[in-house]
Every structure is written in structure tokens, then in C-alpha cells.
Amino acid sequence: MTQHGPGAPEDLDRSWGAVGVSLLTAAFVLALLALVGADLLWLVALGDDVRRTGSVPDGVPFAVAPSDGWPPVLLVAEVVLSVLHGPGLSALLLWHFLTVLATLAVVAVDARRRGASDRSTALALGALLLGGISVFAVVRLQTFSLLPFALVLLLVRSQHVRPGRGIWWAPVLVAVWGNLHGSVLLGVCVVGAYLLLSRLSRRPAETILVGLATLAALFVNPATWRTGEYYLGVMQNEAAAQGEGLWAAPNLSDPFDLLMIAAAVVLGAFALRRRLPLWEYVALAGLLVATVVAARNGIWLLLLLTAPAAAGRAPSRTATPGDPDVPPALGRPSARATVVCLVGAVAAGALLLQRTHALSEDDERFAAQVAQAAPGQVVLAPEPVVESLAVHGTKVWLSNPLDAFEPADQRAYLDFMAGRPGMATAVAASGAVLVREGSAADERMAGLSDFDVTELDGSWLIYVRT
Q: Which residues cross the membrane (predicted)?
């Protein structure tokens, strides 16, 4: 094998076979498990409204609870998802499928650039897939952040080794990402840690300019100067304050959270076997705190750990300033391996489309049942089904984005989701209430005399005001 200077390993692993098998495994896992979750279809409904009216709505037009003045930061994401949803849920799932595979591929390249072997990279990707399965197998708005976060890590790690003008891609990435998902704030924090702790002392003037440009890029969206108001609302919404739903802390009784924690421990153990740059330790500490606060942030911790964990078993090639031997030559997959991976990915994608076509039909049929049972009524329904109803034209009382609404209405909706007494406010404002049979909300609705109940598919009940 070719050597790459003093200290380079004698037998640099240039193969990609194990990584290819890992990516194919991920493709078939996604094809079999991927589902649409909460925090996605509300953007489709908003995007549909934008495309239909040709204007930016004031608030959330498909919900009757007051939401005037909500900043339209994610307008681009809304329109993109509306277009993707045109053919049905299958197109959204295919977009998610391709995004996850692209993210895993970028992480693999990042690991190999650190000197990780083919096998160790594949094993690290397997741990990432298992630990992040609740994110990789469920399509949410968060999908928009997977690839940008991986690209930011790849960018700043390469710049840590060889600082150059490529760092100016950071504000470009942030400007695009900020129109798609709020996790861009974590990406900015990672970039900031690198700029302050790795680059500032070597190239101060350029670093300050890049930092200012990256912060300014957060405001390159339709909300412009109101962007800060949007993010403040997101972080102060009632679900975040109460630690509920997507803002819940890790739960040791949740198998998905246990998988995430186990993967983080394993990846962290291997990553910390070698000395990391200071900025990576700081980013690691920040994401660890974020994960303790909300389990949904665990995916960013896993993505940060995967590349250094894969390289943890290799001879030391820690990226240090001025090291001309890093990144090493990566090699390239053989033509046969490339063909096998492409054919396998196409087969997995076809399986996904076949499976999700039925999901799309079920989604439309259920929305039609609700509309027939409660014609013209404002419907109170739980996540994620409420977002599907909104997409199909049903007027709902409240839905995601939760932070768009008044705090009192947010609390009433969360009480409805949990079946608590406070749901009475939400019920009083609605003409029909959709609940799961046997749920806490169903038990409370059964005690009300001014509603008629109708059974729907899938153990759903709809209470219609008489």
C-alpha cells in the first residue's frame, strides 16, 4: 500500500466493501420501517396554502386557535414539502430515505478521512443506525437537518486540519439550513466552537468575518429580523417547558431512548480513546447537555461521535494543525461494489414505495371518514393524525407548530393529548373531538352528554357535538 509520510499506517485500508454493506442494510431497514410521524405534515398544509394563494399566510390558516403574527421562518421548507407531498406520502418517505442514506455516506467519508478502516467505519455506522433508529425510521421536519449537520461536521473537521477559504461554505450552509429547520442553531454552535477554539488564533481577521457572516446567515429567510422571535418562541413553547412530546427528556423505560444511550456510550468510549481537538470536546459537552434536556437531540450527539469512534481503533492520525498527512487517501469502491450498492438501493427504494402507497391510501380514506362524520366541524385531534386531517382540508382547533399559538391554548392542547382535566378548554372550542378508544381523553369525553360518538377505523372514536 502507498504510504503517506511519516507516521502513516503501513497498510492504509482503501476498501469500502463493509461500508457498502452497512449502507445497504440501512436502506432495507428504512424500507421496512419508515413511517410519517408528528411535526411534518403541518408544513405540507401550510405549503399547500402558500401555493394555492400565492401569499404568505398570517399565522396557521388551517387552525382556528389564534396564531396571528407567527414569523414565517420555515416558508421554504413548507413549499418544498408541499411539492413533495403532491404524489402522496410515498414521495415524502422516499425523500427521507435518500436523505438518511446521503447522511450516512457523508459520515462514512468523514470517518475514513480520519484514518478509520472500512470495517470500523461500518461498525460505527451500525451503532449510529441502531441508536438513531427513532429518527432514521420516522419522517419528521428534523429530516431536513440530518444532511446539513453531517456536512457541517465534515467541513469544520477538514478545515481544522487544513484551514482555507473553504470555511466560507459555513455561512452558505447555514443560510440554506435556516430556511428548513431550527436545528441550524446547533450547527451554528458547532461552527462557533471550531472558529473560536481552533481557527481564531491562527487566522483572526478571517475567522471573525466568517463568524459574523454565519450569524447573519441565520436571518436570511422570509422572517428576516423577526427570526430571533421565532426561535425564542420555539424554545419557550409549553411542550418544551413541560418536557412533553418531542421535547421529552430521555426515558429509561423507552426502548428507543435506551438504544440511543447505549449507542452514545459505545461510540463515546471509542471516540475518547484518542485525543480530540478542543473544539470537539466543547461541542461534545454541549450536545450531551442538549440530549439530557431533550432526547430528540441525541441524534446530533451520535452524529458527532461516529467518525472519531470509527477512527478510535486505527493508528493515531488525530487531525492537528499543519499535519500534511491528514486526510489520508480514501481509495474508491470497485465498479462491482458500486453496481451492487446501486441495485440494492433501488430495490430498497422500490420496496419502500410499494409499502407506503398503501399508507397513503389509508391516510386519505381516514381523513374522508372524519370529514363525513363531522361535516364542517372544527375538529380537535391528537398528533400526528391532526396534521394529516389538516392536509386533507379539515379545519382543526390546534396543531403543530405549537409555538405559533397562545400559551394558554398550547397548555389546553397538551392537556387534551394527555387526557387531563385542562382539556375542557380545547373541547369547548371544538365541534368534534377525535380520540383513541380507551384513551384517557376518551374516558373524559364519554362523560359528556352533548356529544354523539361514532366509531371509525383503527380503534378511533369521534365525538360530534349535538
A: 21-45, 92-111, 123-156, 168-196, 208-225, 255-272, 284-307
